[in-house]
Amino acid sequence: MKLKHLPLLGLLLLIISVAVIPGVFATWQYAMSSPDPKNSSFSLTVEEYNFNGVVYVTNAYKTSGDGEFLFTGYNLTTVTSKATLKNSTTSSVTAKITVYNSASETYAFNAVKYTAEHYSNTDIVYELPALQHGDPVEAGKSLSFDVIFAYKAGVEPINTTLDSILNFDFVKLSELPKDEEEIAVSGALGQFEDILNGNTISDSLAQLTNQMDDFDANDRHDDSYIGNVTGATDEDSMLLENLFQDNLTLLINGVETSVTILIKRENVDGKANTGDASGREMTIYMTTSDLQQTGSWLRPASATVFASVFTSNDDGKTWSQVGEMHEGTATIKQYNGWYGGGSFDTDTWKSLDGKTIEQLV
């Protein structure tokens, strides 16, 4: 494999490793280092390195600006970098990133996803001057876009360096979320499938079901549900936070978005030979609502809640999603109670066209 456009005296470090980076990151990582941090570059041709069926970065380099910029790592469409600006409010640096679509269908730009711990300086912000939600990259084609790093308006330059890990998320055009709310829950949904199938943590399903089974110690009525809603025990919430690996609290296009979830284990399709060994499906209910109660005792308020069902045909060894993710509403309530806020009642959930989850499945 040949890597081009590096300085002659440059030191190339190539890492191809299975790297489990929480949240928004994929598996293969390749990185480079250069003795010239002012204008480092990286180039990887499609023919020389091909991740089949995904979108990944093939080229990244500084194009303009008075600051320094160093790309330090790549993980499919996740870019690790250091930007160092001048001590001037007008200082900025622009980088160009190129991605390639190795899949057999069109993908589209979804959003920039990252966590607060992977964005070291909030005085420096990024801008995408041209790339917009929904911009497509066709199968077998490349797409280039600029990223500008500059000081936030009104900031006096004191901390001049930003270390960041940003995921420029591309998804199948046919599955493109319509807004930031759906973007957030889609990330949680993708991680839930990984949890059920042990894709990132080998015993993740066992951890989840063991915690569900321990309902008496966690102030739940039975073993059919678990969540991170207000009122859930610290043990339940911490277990889910660990399993979902930062996908429950993300910055999406610079806006922090938190996802509240309830997971139900029950027979949704009415069949005894699907789901786990007891015939139960796994349904995840997700919302970005603050779940504040604004209604009355007789007419409690509702929240927008997304739901998706997973089932198994081998007694719970492997799981797959049943149909699509459904948008609906559910009554806001107290956890393990009735009127109040902080949680929602999955038994009241209905899709936008008035169907229950059982009817949809």
Features:
single chain; 361 residues; mainly beta; 7-stranded antiparallel beta sheet; 6-stranded antiparallel beta sheet; 4 helices
Radius of gyration: 23 Å
Low-confidence stretches: 1-40, 44-48
The residue-averaged pLDDT reads 87
Spatial shape: globular
Spatial separation of the terminal alpha carbons? 48 Å
Could you explain how this protein is built, in words?
This protein has helices at 180-197, 204-213, 234-244, 357-360, and strands at 17-18, 28-29, 41-43, 55-65, 68-75, 78-84, 92-101, 107-114, 124-127, 136-137, 142-151, 161-172, 225-227, 249-252, 255-258, 260-266, 281-287, 302-311, 320-333, 343-351. Helix content is 12%, strand content 38%. Strands 5, 6, 8, 10, 12, 14 and 15 form a seven-stranded antiparallel beta sheet that branches. The chain is mainly beta and 361 residues long. α2 (204-213) runs antiparallel to α3. Mean pLDDT is 87; it is low at 1-40 and 44-48. β18 (302-311) and β19 (320-333) form a beta hairpin. It is built from four helices and 20 strands. It starts with 16 loop residues before the first strand and ends with a helix.
How do the strands and helices of this protein lay out in sequence?
Elements: E1 17-18, E2 28-29, E3 41-43, E4 55-65, E5 68-75, E6 78-84, E7 92-101, E8 107-114, E9 124-127, E10 136-137, E11 142-151, E12 161-172, H1 180-197, H2 204-213, E13 225-227, H3 234-244, E14 249-252, E15 255-258, E16 260-266, E17 281-287, E18 302-311, E19 320-333, E20 343-351, H4 357-360
Helix pairs in contact: 2-3
